[in-house]
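Predict the holo structure. Ligand: zinc ion.
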Amino acid sequence: MTTFKGRCLCGDTQYSIKAEPFAPHTCSCTMCQRWAGAPTVPWVSFKGALEFTGKHKRLQYYQSSKHAKRGRCKTCGSPIGVLNDRYPEEVCIVLSSLQPASLAKINVPAEWHNANAKVPIWWHLEIGGADKGFVRSAE
Ligand SMILES: [Zn+2]
Ligand SMILES: [Zn+2]
């Protein structure tokens, strides 16, 4: 198992997770855009739970849909991850919250982009074969 580490902007939220990443993808759906304040959000999932190693021992969650809640740092508001009660064993992390050394271990397949129709016309997303959806895992 590989250990991945990440943190928020201010550093009050720091986490590590010892699990293999799966289903890395980018998403331009309206919920991701509004939540993160970005035209596209990069994601990666892990089977496991985050271990919080900084000042905060949990994220501040917002129930963004029936099954999913989105978590941020309580201090600085950095978007960190999503929990979905349909997949209780998993956590989906904002890829860009990972530390550079952890980020470098994850390869996002170019075709795994979701909600291509919501990409702003001024945002040039250089992802080949976008909007094929993403594959959660090979299970
Ligand atoms: Zn923070
Ligand atoms: Zn989305």
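The helical segments are 30-36, 100-103. Residues 27, 29, 31-32 surround zinc ion (ligand 2) (CB under 6 Å).
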